[in-house]
Design goal:
The complex is a heterodimer of chains A (211) and B (371). With 211 residues, chain A is α/β, with parallel strands linked by helices. Chain A has 2 domains: 121 residues, Periplasmic binding protein-like II (D-Maltodextrin-Binding Protein, domain 2, 3-Layer(aba) Sandwich), CATH 3.40.190; 85 residues, D-Maltodextrin-Binding Protein, domain 2 (3-Layer(aba) Sandwich), CATH 3.40.190.10. Chain A has 9 helices and 11 strands. Chain B has 371 residues and is of the alpha+beta class. Chain B has 3 domains: 196 residues, Bira Bifunctional Protein, Domain 2 (BirA Bifunctional Protein, domain 2); 105 residues, no CATH class; 45 residues, no CATH class. In chain B, strands 1-5-6-12-11-10-7-9-8 form a 9-stranded mixed sheet, with helices on both faces. A 3-stranded antiparallel sheet of chain B has the order 2-4-3. The chains are: A alpha/beta (211), B alpha+beta (371). At the A-B interface, strand 5 and helix 8 of A face helix 7 and strand 8 of B.
Chain lengths: 211, 371
């Protein structure tokens, strides 16, 4: 039985492919994809699809893909029905709370306004701190929103922190650590157990080598 | 005025409906052959009924309304609770065990735009007042066989596997809920991080980390027995093995397996739990288990077990039936009586539609494909 693996485009794409190559998978066609949307592995009976991070979850939940590789940030924002079975320990970054120093975010009285691309993560975080917040969804660069007075602070992903620093934003807290995760469709896990276990074991080996 | 269905509810057209009816007929016939009696309950239940039934109620997924006294009413989110209520009230005097079955719609709110509907169709049985798991499992296996699917697999586990062990180790009920939740999602990364927060012996850690991914044949029970750190868990594993062996001896060996990481509805299921999977469906198409505490919550303590098929994903897997034909009898107005009489005769063996056509001189009949 063949497997279909949904890979997240963009930030994680190259890192995931490198790990698959390390584990002996034939990803040439994905590397040189052109306009093709479904790409086959040159070694194993596997098909790859490259998708946006949110869609990765959707495809796996519905079983259109058996396995997905997606950032923990996306999983935290979209709780869903799948098995999260492996941490690839690559594509590492974290969710942070940041604000201008004068905003006094955690000592401010009354309602606090937070800009973020991740409203669910932001809401959960501030709920756990019993803070009264209004979440404002921002789609573009979130760092801008406190600079021009739309919000008091932000919840966002931080990789290097250089954008924050260049704009005088201070990291106040780390909400959670993020890395690439392997998720598995529930029915596929039952019906293609051997194939999936093999992929997980191969990737786990690559994770251990990189450790 | 926009004309559309609320939430993501959908209309069903003839082709889909016939497929479902045929499927459910086959399943209900099996239930009937096991002596289960079909019942129907109202689409609505009091919120209080559900609240009494579940210690951890998913109340944000219930569709809620108010009745004339401003009491909260919900669209039923499953059929087990309504049937348990029925068993505790209208069938209060009926002698146990009660064997009841149903084919009914249930409602659970879903994330918008996720491709799932809130109204789904369940077809299942409840055996109330009996501690026999085996006849219900055999009934499930026979119904799966009758459903017309090529391949499927019934997986068994026991809710006590995690509950017993967790209660020996963790004092805080919240930690046990977290543990069960992470195990159920096979969220191996977070599960490890969670266990790291406690000072646990290596054997305990290994047991909880292994349980979610222990599935397969009888060998998985053996592996679990080697990992178990208490007698109670070993006893549960022995029971599971005995149940599995019994089914094997009846010739069901090829169709069953075990998934010890299956841990749904903590505090609801009290013993055996099982689910069936089919290639092509993205989740379980049948699920069930033993729920010995539910009837006590309704004032009539009785051990109970049941399961339900999820008809929507199953029906989607059944291939379209062959084309159906009908006869159209077209007639001029002055020959209406003859046409109706002719149609009446033909209806003994065909579907017949009548069509008045002033342009005709005499009756014409033709075959047409039905939609």
């Amino acid at each position: 039985m063949s497997l279909r693996i949904a890979l997240t485009k963009g930030r994680l794409e190259d890192k995931t492919l490198t790990m698959l190559e390390q584990a002996g998978y034939g990803t040439e066609k994905v590397r040189n994809k052109g306009r093709a949307l479904v790409l086959s592995d040159t070694v194993h009976p596997i098909e790859y699809v490259l998708v946006k991070s949110n869609d990765c979850i959707t495809y796996v939940e519905h079983g259109a893909a058996d396995i997905g590789v997606v950032g923990k940030d996306t999983l935290l924002e979209n709780e869903g029905d799948y098995y999260e079975m492996l941490d690839l320990k690559t594509g590492k970054c974290c969710f942070i709370v940041a604000a201008l120093p004068q905003a006094q975010l955690f000592s401010k009285k009354g309602r606090v306004r937070i800009g973020t691309k991740y409203p669910h993560v932001a809401r959960q975080y501030f709920l756990s701190r019993n803070m009264d917040v209004e979440i404002i969804k921002i789609d573009g660069s979130v760092e801008l929103s406190p600079l021009i007075g739309l919000v008091d602070g932000i919840v966002d992903i931080m990789e290097t922190g250089s954008t924050l620093k260049a704009n005088a934003l201070q990291v106040l807290d780390v909400v959670s650590e993020i890395s690439a995760r392997v998720i598995v469709n529930k029915a596929s896990w039952k019906l293609k157990k051997d194939e999936i276990t093999q992929v997980l074991a191969d990737l786990k080996k690559a994770v251990d080598q990189n450790a | 005025m926009e004309l559309r269905t609320p939430f993501s509810c959908r209309d069903l057209l003839s082709r889909d409906l016939r497929k479902r009816k045929a499927l459910c007929r086959r399943i209900l016939d099996v239930f009937d052959s096991f002596g289960f009696e079909e019942v129907s309950t109202p689409a609505m239940e009091y919120y209080q009924t559900y609240n009494q039934a579940f210690s951890t109620l998913e109340d944000r997924r219930m569709v809620k309304l108010f009745d004339e006294h401003q009491d909260i009413v919900t669209l039923r989110m499953d059929m087990t609770v309504p049937i348990a209520r029925l068993a505790a009230t209208a069938l209060n005097n009926a002698s146990a065990p009660l064997r009841l079955c149903y084919w009914s719609d249930v409602w659970k709110l879903r994330k918008a735009l996720s491709g799932r509907t809130i109204q789904t169709s369940d077809c299942g049985v409840e055996l109330i007042g009996s501690d026999d798991d085996r006849q219900v499992l055999v009934c499930a296996l026979e119904a799966l066989k009758a459903s017309g699917l090529d391949a499927w697999r019934l997986e068994l586990s026991d809710a006590r596997l995690l509950q017993n062990a967790a209660h020996l180790v963790f004092e805080n009920e919240e930690d046990i809920v977290t543990l069960a939740d992470l195990s159920d999602k096979k969220s191996m990364v977070e599960l490890e991080a969670f266990l790291d927060k406690f000072d646990l012996g290596e054997d305990i850690r290994r047991f909880f980390l292994s349980l979610p991914i222990l599935d397969g044949g009888f060998e998985s029970l053996e592996q679990a027995r080697n990992l178990a750190f208490d007698e109670g868990t070993r006893h549960v594993l022995d029971e599971l093995e005995a149940t599995g062996r019994f089914l094997e001896s009846l010739g069901y060996g090829e169709m069953i397996g075990f998934d010890l990481g299956k841990l749904p509805h903590l505090n609801y299921y009290t013993g055996l739990i099982f689910e069936a999977f089919v290639p092509g469906a993205s989740g379980a198409v049948l699920s069930g288990g033993r729920y010995d505490n539910l009837m006590a919550a309704f004032g009539r303590p009785m051990p109970s077990i049941g399961f339900a098929f999820k008809i929507d994903p199953l029906a989607a897997l059944i291939p379209d039936q062959e084309e159906r034909k009908k006869i159209v009898v077209a007639y001029p107005p002055h020959m209406a009586k003859e046409a109706f009489e002719e149609a009446g005769r033909l209806r003994a063996s065909f579907a017949v539609c009548l069509l008045e056509d002033a342009a005709l001189d005499m009756i014409e009949t033709r075959m047409e494909v039905r939609p």
